Amino acid sequence: MKNKDESNKTTVVKVDSFGDKEEKTNSTETILVEKREKVGLITLNRPKSLNALNRQLAKETLSALKKFDSDPDVGAVVIAGSPRAFAAGADIEEMAEKTFIDFYMDDFLSSWDEVRTIKIPIIAAVSGFALGGGCELALLCDFIIASDDAQFGQPEIKLGILPGIGGSQRLAKSVGKSMAMDMVLTGRNIPAQEAKEIGLVARVVPKEELLQTAIEAAQTIAGFNSPSVRMAKSAVNMAFETPLDAGLKQERLLFKAAFATEGQKEGMNAFVNKRAPVFRNK
Ligand code: CAA
Q1: Helices (H), the chain
Q2: CB under 6 Å to ligand 1: residues?
Q3: pLDDT on residue 253
């Protein structure tokens, strides 16, 4: 198989637990990783294959997400692609010769499920194609901001297969049965504006404003009381994973738990005293 990737060396500036700045050089083949203030930015970087999601890209993306999740200085993550493609799906070249037994013994696509373990919010900044696994990766993020030229689709049916990174489930929960069936069974792409109308996408912005908008949204989130942000993400996710009664109980529990944080005292005290809150993520 031809290697379409080149190694990227990126420098991540970290402040360690003693308050010292340390520079860590991450060497990745398929993504670029950087920190912009309190936001972790992961840019999918396989331009020659329109960011097709191969095994290496999954491994590197999950590793970067886990590092950001355990970094106390990072409060949210943005995953972006290139202007032409967020990601055009799982890597067809890598999969073409695989057999049932190959997938059964080494189901590497299911590793994407680990994105669900990330506690800090993840925003997908989608420009161009978000197809197949690319659409599924966007759906794995907590919300999607799309550029006006973005296209979403689950074209797997045209390849003789079906979605394999949770698309049939998350798309149905996100946009309802009828629209999910339309996309999964016809394989048609839907443009950004339609994706917004059906609730797949939270915001549509001009292409040149996409990254800035996504980073600003992530900075806003990262500026809030971090324990409460994590609890809020977890509470909303409960709506998709449990019956209403269990979700409501969990929300009540998390709501009470927020009162155990210093951030709750600070946020409410700041409001009462008409000043800006300073959250210390405790
Ligand atoms: N896997 C591997 N390579 C891919 C790819 C993919 N999913 N998508 C695009 N590429 C490669 C193309 O092979 C091409 O490579 P070469 O230059 O070496 O020929 C390069 O990216 C550029 O693509 P095109 O020349 O096709 O560009 P285009 O503008 O004419 O078309 C496109 C763009 C409509 C996105 C088209 O590339 C396409 O249809 N791609 C496949 C989309 C797809 O079927 N995705 C689902 C994959 S299966 C999946 O994701 C399963 C799952 O759920 C887990």
Answers
A1: 55-69, 92-95, 100-105, 133-140, 167-175, 177-186, 192-197, 210-222, 226-241, 244-258, 262-272
A2: 49-50, 52, 88-93, 109, 129, 131-133, 136, 155-156, 159, 163-165, 167
A3: 96
